[in-house]
Amino acid sequence: MTDTNIVSIARLADHVGQEVTLRGWLYNKRSSGKLHFLEVRDGSGVVQAVVFKGDVSPELFLAADHLQQETSLEVVGTVKEHGKIKGQYELQAKDVKILGAPSREYPISPKEHGTDFLMDNRHLWLRSKRQHAIVRVRHAIIKAVRDFFDQNDFTLVDAPIFTPNACEGTSNLFQTDYHGDPAYLTQSGQLYMEAAAAAFGKVYCFGPTFRAEKSKTRRHLAEFWMVEPEVAFMNLEEDMQLAENFLSFVVQRVLETRRPELAILERDTKMLENVKAPFPRITYHQAIEILQQNGHPEAKVGDDFGGDEETVISNKFDRPVIVHRYPMDLKAFYFAKDASDPSLALNMDVLAPEGYGEIVGGGQREDDLARLEGAIDHHKLPREAFEWYLDLRRYGTFPHAGFGLGIERTVSWICGLPHVRETIPFPRMLNRLAP
To answer: Where are the beta strands (DSSP E) in 166-264?
Structure first.
């Protein structure tokens, strides 16, 4: 092999007419007489390497015809513009070196495979164009999330994974032993962000969270990633503004940077183009009326919304809709009450269009010590586990609000995926702990 500069497929446009070295894996191949067309992927993209019989030795030309899928290769060749597709490039190969030949036939072929088979081979399935596109969109979403908060003067504060108490009770948490004491894998970093907001004003945490729900729906994972901002001296109205500005920023950033990936996924982006603040807002009671008028006459005040109900509500709008002020009985102990109607919580949910349901949930927190103590007692939560949380009201209490956004549901929505299992590289579900 030569000492030609090693480049990535994503950077081939900078090397037109130059001889380069490319390292990657054989994704596909086809032959036509004196030509072999090798599709090579390197993680940054896929390029066609053209092996012409007259440019290489007879031994190399023969070997190229017998390469197996996923053989790792080093290809030397000249970068040329694709003759028919503007903006695409190919490699006129002069040498091909096998770095690693598969020891057996690659199990994932172009034919149809069942979901269980693909999930069992998730570590290999990630190499496909579709899964590659999804993970790249996920990356863009996560970068946009961090950029939004960093550009708006938020401080990242990491919340613990092991917690001594739960935000909303322990019925759906994974319990573990922590040196002889019970501990739980976190379901939310919110309570810790409330403490951090008292120290830094505007904060967010971003990390894995866990739910032990025995659910097999297309929207639930046992392990998922969540971003949770919390802001001191913020009320519900300002919280809704933050959520809509945040979501608008993330979606528009993905449209700016990942259109090729969305095209691979055959995602119709028309509805995504509409995701710009402000969003329509309706009260919980108005949402009940929408349900009653659209095929759910049995809907009544006091009912919570599942996936079907969220879909009916969101279908009335061309962009995400914010539903606010649910009954207190449906919400966690830490929500503040609406002063004009104490039966209602100062909360809000953002429902994505096209049937993707709730992607943001949050609201204003109870900042009165006595009322918060009463709420903990009302929900029959262990008082001693929340003493540190009550300290936030004992020492300079302040109005504050925030929300949580699940990354996987957001990826599912933006990519147009029917199930969250494809939104994370290695999903953990009710009956899946491997690979």
So the answer is: 175-178, 181-185, 202-210, 223-232
